[in-house]
TrEMBL record:
Protein name as catalogued: Peptide deformylase
Residues at which Fe cation binds: 88, 130, 134
PANTHER family reported in the protein's UniProt record: PEPTIDE DEFORMYLASE (PTHR10458), PEPTIDE DEFORMYLASE, MITOCHONDRIAL (PTHR10458:SF2)
GO process annotations (BP): translation
Positions annotated as active site in the UniProt record: 131
Name of the gene this protein is made from: def
Keyword terms of this UniProt record: Hydrolase, Iron, Metal-binding, Protein biosynthesis
SUPFAM superfamilies: Peptide deformylase
């Protein structure tokens, strides 16, 4: 439908827990479409609604050619871990190794309100965990060890995009329930 501006580190909507979706309507389907278009354009492996200024528990992913979305996710994580590179569209050009569960079983709903169960490992598991964290106001840099987090914060402060005047962002066309613009 439409490519939306991606919110960057420092925007308060990225640190706010998103609200559960209760209405599965045309508006939600448009949000999923906008998230998908924006993620594919970026390009990224995933994108959560708060990253486009919408405080609802919805995210999309694009891993190994598969595009999907999940509404109101809950996760069951494996005890086995993976450690690998991770980045974020809200933290441009920043990549650090991050520990995540190796596999995940995610439950939630599709945009029509139908129950969904997704099983994934490695990159898909990483993407699902990363995007679900966004819905809880958590960024991947919060998961780094102390030394790596300090380096990441230094890199952020020295980046061209950090602290620059924020671009004018139009009001979201989606209901935000008072969360974000």
């Amino acid at each position: 439908m439409a490519i939306q501006p991606i919110r960057l580190f420092g925007d308060p909507v990225l640190r706010t827990r998103a609200t559960e979706v209760t209405t599965f309507d045309k508006e939600l389907r448009r949000l999923v479409s906008d998230l998908t278009d924006t993620m594919l354009d970026a390009p990224g492996a995933g994108l959560a609604a708060p990253q486009i200024g919408v405080g609802l528990r919805v995210f999309t992913w694009h891993v190994h050619g598969e595009v999907g979305h999940l509404v109101n996710p809950s996760l069951d994580l494996s005890e086995e871990l993976q450690d690998g590179p991770e980045g974020c569209l809200s933290l441009p050009e920043l990549t650090y190794d991050c520990v995540r569960a190796l596999s995940v079983v995610a439950r939630g709903f599709d945009m029509h309100g139908e129950p969904v169960r997704i099983e994934g490992s490695e990159l898909l598991a990483r993407a699902i965990q990363h995007e679900t964290d966004h819905l809880d106001g958590i960024l991947f840099i919060d998961k780094l060890d102390t030394a790596s987090r300090k380096l990441a914060m230094k890199e952020i402060r020295e980046s061209d995009w950090f602290g620059a005047e924020r671009p004018m962002v139009k009001v979201s066309p989606h209901r935000t329930n008072g969360l974000g613009l």
